[in-house]
Amino acid sequence: MRTLSRRMDSVIAFGIGAIVLAAAFVFGDPIYAGAWYYLIAWFALVGLVQIAKAPPLLTTGAAMALAGSFLFYWTWQASLPQPQGLLGLGHLFSLPGLGIAAVMAAVAVRRRRARPWMAFAAGLVACSIGFVVAQIVACRFLMYCGALSGQIG
Q1: What ranges make up the beta strands (E) of 3-144?
Q2: Which of 50, 62, 82, 151 could be joined to 123 by an S-S link, Cβ 3.0–4.6 Å?
Q3: pLDDT (tens digit per residue) in 40-53
Q4: pLDDT of 74 above 50
């Protein structure tokens, strides 16, 4: 069985990003962020994880978490009776949590010398949790996010 390299892991992660970007072009950009936002988010995530010397498949797990965050926001925008033009700011303010979690997962998985499937799971779960925690902070203290902001007052 051939082992997966970090380079191939990055290629897979960028492939996931290309699919998300293609979906935004084909179906429209529900969060009005523009292609530059998706590209910068992907390059930043893959760059951070590779700088942290993540083991193979962690980058793919982190990319899946980022794709899931975009899909969450697209679905949220579609569920609103009237489109929200600044909804993408909530996503932007939550990306630091995803990035920090990605680096922490990369360091932890590298130190434990985990298998690739474990690195994938760690990347996916850690980045998802990091995004959600940052989302809660952003929606409670930085901006109004509708139902995600909780009871104000």
Answers
A1: none
A2: 62
A3: 998 999 899 988 88
A4: yes
> Would you tell me the crossing angle of helices 58-79 and 116-137 to the nearest 10 degrees?
40
Distance, in Å, from the CA atom of 44 to the CA atom of 64, rounded to the nearest integer, reads: 14
CA 133/CA 96 separation, integer angstroms: 10
Quick count: other Cβ atoms within 10 Å of Cβ 144? 11
The stretch 55-59 carries a mean pLDDT of 89
Q: What is the DSSP code string of 53-73? A: TPPTTHHHHHHHHHHHHHHHH
Cα angle, residue 148 at apex, residues 43 and 66 outer, rounded to 5°: 20
Take residue 140 and report the two structure tokens written for it.
């409670």
Joined tokens for residue 42:
């992907």
